[in-house]
């Protein structure tokens, strides 16, 4: 009975999030149109209006991110398994986020094991999980630093390590970082790491973290080569 109630609440929350998302999208489009109208006008007062519209756009974008992250987390997705090279999967994530990371004066280092066996996993979901972990590392290095991404493994498992030289995580909150909506950062939704954990566990894998304050953190993702075997 309890599990049925939880499933119902999850469905209800997902439906509510979709209902909120639709008017929010309309609001965002109209703000953009209003911004274009203001840009065509002249005068000191218009600058104030322009600034206020920008502030509204930022908040709308933040709400959209929260809703999207919630929907990703709440939605129980069936895995679409494909054969792949994990190094290529990781590298696509790195290529995607490299421009943003370089702007923050973060040096990206890569060390891929060239002898890893082919993997069978849901490529898009695993990319999302890795991206969430990398974004978390990026946010921990506001003043620059180094981001090391490694792959390793054997015939049964592959491992992806994401290591940063950021602020680190204190021992008293280390066991809370995978909790839904728990975040110590100014930005973010508090769903990035919980979503990553859920995706990895759906693949019968594990995600763990080691961290030291003012030195940095290392997140280790361990995945079976073929989720169907284990």
TrEMBL record:
Keyword Lyase in record: no
Catalyzed reaction equations: ATP + protein L-histidine = ADP + protein N-phospho-L-histidine
Lineage, broadest ranks: Bacteria, Pseudomonadati, Planctomycetota, Candidatus Brocadiia, Candidatus Brocadiales
Pfam families: HATPase_c (PF02518), HisKA (PF00512)
SUPFAM superfamilies per the UniProt record, alphabetical: ATPase domain of HSP90 chaperone/DNA topoisomerase II/histidine kinase, Homodimeric domain of signal transducing histidine kinase
Domain (Histidine kinase) ranges: 15-227
Keyword terms, alphabetized: ATP-binding, Coiled coil, Kinase, Nucleotide-binding, Phosphoprotein, Transferase, Two-component regulatory system
GO MF terms, alphabetically ordered: ATP binding; phosphorelay sensor kinase activity
Protein name, per record: histidine kinase
Segments forming a coiled coil: 46-73
Documented EC number(s): 2.7.13.3
């Amino acid at each position: 009975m309890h599990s049925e109630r939880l499933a119902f609440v999850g469905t209800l929350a997902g439906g509510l999030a979709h209902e909120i998302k639709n008017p929010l999208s309309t609001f965002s489009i109209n703000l953009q149109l209003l911004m274009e109208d203001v840009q065509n006008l002249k005068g000191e007062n218009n600058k104030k209006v322009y600034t206020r519209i920008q502030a509204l756009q930022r908040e709308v974008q933040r709400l959209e991110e929260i809703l999207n992250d919630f929907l990703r987390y709440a939605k129980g997705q069936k895995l679409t398994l494909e054969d792949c090279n994990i190094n290529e999967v990781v590298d696509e994530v790195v290529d995607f986020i490299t421009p943003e990371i370089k702007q923050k004066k973060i040096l990206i280092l890569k060390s891929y094991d060239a002898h890893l066996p082919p993997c069978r996993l849901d490529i898009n979901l695993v990319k999302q999980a890795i991206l969430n972990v990398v974004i978390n590392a990026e946010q921990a290095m506001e003043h620059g630093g180094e981001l090391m991404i490694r792959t390793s493994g054997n015939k049964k498992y592959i491992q992806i390590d994401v290591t940063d030289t950021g602020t680190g995580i204190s021992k008293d909150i280390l066991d809370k970082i995978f909790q839904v909506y728990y975040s110590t950062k100014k930005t973010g939704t508090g769903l990035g790491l919980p979503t990553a954990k859920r995706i990895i566990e759906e693949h019968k894998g594990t995600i763990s973290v080691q961290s030291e304050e003012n030195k940095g953190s290392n997140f280790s993702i361990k995945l079976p080569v073929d989720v169907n075997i284990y």
